[in-house]
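ping. complex inputs:
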Amino acid sequence: MTAQVVPDFNVEPERYELRAAPVYHFDLARRDFFKVFGSGIVVLLLLEEVTAQESGGGRRRGGGQRRPQELGAWLHIGKDGVVTVFTGKAEVGQNIRTSLSQVVAEELRVPVVSIRLTMGDTELTPFDAGTFGSRTTPDMAAQLRKISAAAREALVGLASEQLKIERSQLVVESGRVTHPGSNRSVAFGELAGDQKLLKTVADNPATTPAVDWKIAGTSVPKVSGRDFVTGGHKYTPDIKRPGMLHGKVLRPPAFGSTLTSADTGTAEAMPGVVVVRDGDFVGVAAPDEQIAERAVAAIRTEWKTSPQTSDKELFDELKKTSSTSGGRGGGGNQTGSMEEGLAAADHKLRQTYTIAYIAHAPLEPRAAVAEWKDDKLTVWTGTQRPFGVRGDLAQAFRVPEERVRVIVPDTGSGYGGKHTGEAAVEAARLAKAAGKPVKLVWTREEEFTWAYFRPAGVIEASGGVRADGTITAWEFHNYNSGGSAIRPLYDIPNQKVEFHSARSPLRQGSYRALAATANHFARESYVDELAHAVKMDPLEFRLKNLKDARLRAVLEAAASTFGWGKTKLPSGHGAGIAVGSEKGSCLATCAEVGVDPAGGKIRIVRVVQAFECGAILNPDHLKNQNEGAIVMGLGGALFEAIRFENGKILNPQFSRYRVPRFADAPRIEIVLLDRKDSPSTGAGETPIVGIAPAVGNAIFDATGVRLRSLPMLPNGLKV
Amino acid sequence: MAKVTELHVNGKALRVDADSERTLLSVLRDDLDLTGTKYGCGEGQCGACTVWLNGFPARSCHTSVGDAAQKKITTIEGLEQDGRLHPLQEAFLDAGAMQCAYCTSGMIMSGAALLRRNPNPSEEEIVHFMEGNICRCGTYRRIIMAIQGAAKVMKGGTG
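pong. complex structure:
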């Protein structure tokens, strides 16, 4: 069998991210653009022609995957020389505002500070399905490079006419088009000034190759970083509108409850309080938060509840309710013959892994400010799907989408948790009743309870290995957790992988890297067990079964920096390694753990991670993403788990749901492999998938105890 | 119901009209538009709402405005002096010690409070002092670097 290159480019579409986008025909006419901009140069990108060339047509399968929009982004250059780019993507801490600004600056040969990005505003930016799936860098950055290159060429054309000099003799630098021979030059602003030039990128303008990058590919600091260290940046909860009220929702006592009665009289009598009861929804709008809380507390409700699954029965339940059809995210996938593979094996092994539900717990909870004006609704909200939330609002209030505007301020993180618009709909419902703008900020407890969770799952792995270390058979079943990165990366002649959807007792959805974390944990733990079964070094064992050059490169880079097999570890310490690939990026993670001889407590001593995502746009931000993902991933690996019973979350606070803190952050070294010859792929998610198996394997090395459940150490870091 | 009518914030006496049982966090944010101080958990567990009361760090989500009325309150907006960032603010920028940055105000207020009482904290002391502040994006190591960097600058007398 030939080596599989980046298997996940062709893996099943992830079911949780497959919310169909509405077909949207954007047909802003020329006059509309110039009504907005006055004058200048506008460059539009016709999306399909470009992405067809970008993707080679085969990046994602399935009829539902075609992006329906016509325009991907547009760019305006005004008479002040300011370059404004409009994209529907959202900034949630992954620092794409910075990296996208860099690629535009690169093509236009201007400093990053002269670029403005208008992001995630449904009235100003072109349709975008959402900021997820690590698509911003491979899709949007590629589109912006083209649009900016086209703008540059248009500016050269205008300069050529104005200076009466042939284009080939002109160069673009520092916001000017210059003729070096005569030293005559003209600024972008002067060229754009009185124009009303609308240009469409239909051809394929030459973009600057990564080897020649001067701004892209460098560690430009976070754009408008000063606003963040001074507290000046306005996140959604910081927005204030004239006459604004504060909203609060009365939550049911348990999931699946139905409201049978509500006595709202006392609350309604409170000055300035508006109470809404609409179906099962009960909420208030009040002059301040305290009054809103008191008003909600004064409402007497009765609910009909029904018995529900608790965490103790979770894994049995997932197995019991699973279907073999595979659902949209999986299905069977078989190569070779399991019988033959197992017959050729000297050792056979069967193991089961479990994965608990975990919460995103973004530090900025879900929030929205909603304002109705002349039947038009404007909502500020932190979401990864501004256009999706616009659709939700339009549907909820039965108004056309063009009367709904969703604006996403740069947001206090998402991690896949902010694909939905509950807070937006709730705030808009309250604002409609109150006749005034309403701000609604979910409490931490609401965020832990009424958002959605990373899917729990059961994974069964079985297979066989020859005494020489060749894996001969591989069978892998994932129940409920998801199909991302479900295939083995290894070259195994006989393999069967299958995803089984199941009935989830809790509401579940996207989470940074989706099921790739669970599937990597199970796969890399299982591979480690196979290596030990044949008494081979885990690194050597992996290299023996791995042909893919990118995977081998990250594995060797991580091992070499870590000193794998070369550094003698102190007594009570252990080392673990894992390799992985997801969303087009590759990584390898090495971890060293230490066991405290007195108390048996595990400590993560250090982590080395090698990461490769094609041509790097911003090395420091890429390192930051890797470091952060490792720390976040340690939470799910070691101690994070949502506990629930009969429709209630039992640990909906930071005091009861432990997330990684300062003392949990190990020494981390990131090794970046910059592949300037390869297209840039996404890097916000994949860096999280390696840490859990690397740590699990290190714990085994240190203690001889194999932990097969995430979280591995829920009771205080003790094996 | 007792009312608070004046607060001393960032060196100024400001008029308010607030029920004394309201949280300091909500009065700062909603009445005084000082929104740099963030809500993160409401139980004093995440540190996003950290301000100083008489120079000591406090969780404003857990402090009633009545309790803060007689004290000197400093928020993230008051850290900058004469248009110059506090060395720790500069150090956060230099170290790139943020991603979404929602925790940043609280981190800087806690870290700067540490530097006031201990101008040369060890890594262990930083970790211990900062343990009540959550950065869900996981930039802890960079924040430690930023605090150490600021300590160095402040000792050099440039802070």
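The domain at 3-78 of chain B is CATH 3.10.20.30 (Ubiquitin-like (UB roll)).
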